[in-house]
Every structure is written in C-alpha cells, then in structure tokens.
Amino acid sequence: MAEKYTVIGAGHGGKAMAAHLSIMGADVAIWNRTFDHISILKKRGGIELESPEGGPHGFGKINLATSDMAEAINHAQVIMVVLPSSAHAEIAKAAAPYLKDGQIVILHPGRTLGALEFAKTIRDQGCTADVTVAEAETFIYASRSDGPAQARIFRIKEAVPLAALPSTRNERVLEAISHAYPQFIDGIDVLHTGLNNMGAIFHPALTLLNAGWIEHTHGDYQFYIDGVTPSVARVLEVLDRERVTVASSVGIRARTSLEWLKLAYDTVGEDLHEAVQNQPGYYGIKAPPTLNHRYLFEDVPMSMVPMASLGMRYGVSVRGMESIIRLGSIIHRTDYWRRGRTVEKLGLEQWSVSELTRFVQEGVIE
Fold it and tell me: Using one digit for the tens of pLDDT, what is the confidence trace for 290-347?
C-alpha cells in the first residue's frame, strides 16, 4: 500500500484530493507551479476539508507544499496529477529528470491518450526509470476550492475505471492505492479509458452549439436541460456514433452515451434528448460563464482531437468531430489540430491496430 503521495496541482480537485488523502492517513505533499498560491498551506500546515453530512471532513495535514518539482517527486511513491490534461506534457517534461524506479504516476483523468502522451514525453526527455503511468477515466471527486486553504467535496464517485500503461500493471497500481481509493476498478487498458471519455462528446459540442446563449447570458441557464434541444441531441448522437466506431476500429466495444447514462445515473430514454431530460442530476447545473472554458480549451485538443486522429488513422469517417474541432478553432482563434494529441505527435502514425493493442496491453513495441 502506498503511504506517500504527491498531488500535482492545487486547484479545486488537487486541494480536495490532498486533504482527503491526508485525513485517510497518508503522508502528503502538494506541488503547484506558483508558490504564492500554496504558501498559505505551508504556513497553516494543511487544508480544511468539508463535505455534506457523512462525507470526509477535518484538517488534512500537508507535510510539504512546494513549487520545486524535484522536491515534490522525491517525496512520493504515488504521484497524483490533478491538472487540466492540456498541462500533462509540460508536467511530464518537468518531472522526467527526477522520476525513480517503482514510482507510479496517475493522471486524474487522462482524457484521451493521456498516459501515452505522458509516457512518450518522459522517454523523450531521457527518463530511463521504471515508472508506471496510469490514468483514470474520469475524476473521482465533485469538489471545489472554498478558499486558499479550504476545500469541499460534494460527492465521491462509487466506481472509476483506471488503467496502467501497460495494462499488465493495472493490478499493481490498484493495489498501491486500494487503501485510500477502493473506488478505482480495472479499466482494462488506456484505450478503453480514453475512448470511454464522455466529456469529449458532451462538453465541446454542447458549448459551441450554445455559444450565443452562453455569451449573452454569461451561462445563466441550465446547461444540459435547456442546452440539449432535439437538434443539439442529434449532433451529440452523431459524435457518439463516431466515437464508438473509432473504438471499434481498434478492437474496443465502447459504451454508448445512452448506456453510460444508464450505468452512471440509472437514466433511460428513447433517444439521447429524452435520456438527458430524464436525468434529475442535470437539473440546476448552469452553463459555463464564458467560452474561455476547459470544455473547449481542454476537451477539444485533449479529448476530441485524439479520437478523431485515431479514426482518421484507422479509416473511420469522423466528419462530425472534424466540424466541432474546426468550430472550436475558429472561435478560439487557435489551431486545435496543431495543439492537440494526434497520432503523429504520439509516434503512432505507422502502427497497425495489433501493434497499438500490444503496446497498451504489454508495453511491447514490435
């Protein structure tokens, strides 16, 4: 069982995770690029955690708060990366010189092909340590930072798939964190966790197709209930079919969005529009207040681009995804294809399906 953790990132999720781990008895360090943001944690010695009745709460002692990556990596058996996935490559570059044999790095979450990107980046930086990189399919907490040294956990998901690269190490990672996180379950491999990434389907398209409403109201409407009209739902269904087909092209049976809604929320409907309207948890969730939001600047390049790129590599039509990527690029005046995780960037453009599958399952490059 791991007892020494470093949490990379001190935002809404990072502070909640660091405090909770400490309350559960772990020796916890926290790293943030800007030390001023965490200096109060060093001064106070920890984070005050609150939760709804019955949830984890109390003072989580932080044994090290630092902006020194060498110090942060040296502290830990398990390194929890709790940052937008657009920062994963940058963190991998910074951490690479200090990683040691036997350490585990977990991306919370990996989005799509995150573990592959992280592993390639540390190798490209000359890291030869035997490090296990893993990724969660989604973030385990619904949480918020309530102040400089305060965090709140609203909900902890009951089952979160997690996969290591290669998947022969899944059990090793799950065992290492099982004392703290029995909620993590075997996610099969990182293609499964990455291609079951529902945020890629729901977030960018729903944001872009409601762009006028978001800018006019600053997000003052119900994102899913008002935003998923029958026409918008039809676009989401096309994107979802493309995602499932991309998964099929690499030998994976991915969950459809309707299956996921049933699994996660026990919600059903004749089609996606009806199922979303039937989901009580979506009522009251407001839209993003601005289009400068992670639903676009993170989910387009780190979720949708890698899905579309895999599809194009293996002969799947992804015209719906290409349209959303193009729209996001226009609205943000940036080239998300250039910024995103593509098979070319990850060095996969020449790999057959069997070579890719063997690599994620066994770590073997033929």
Answer: 999 999 999 999 999 999 999 999 999 999 999 999 999 999 999 999 999 999 999 9
Q: Taking the CA atoms of 241, 243, 244 and 249 in sequence, report the sign of the dihedral they define.
A: positive
Of the residues 203, 216, 218, 240, only one is catalytic, namely 203
Q: Is 299 a catalytic residue?
A: yes
**Cβ 7 vs Cβ 38: under 8 Å:** no
Q: Is 146 a catalytic residue?
A: no
Pick the CATH number of 4-190 from 3.30.450.30, 3.40.50.720, 3.50.50.60, 2.40.70.10: 3.40.50.720
Does the bond joining 109 to the residue before it have cis omega, within 30 degrees of 0? Answer: yes
Say if domain 196-360 classifies as CATH 2.60.40.10.
Answer: no
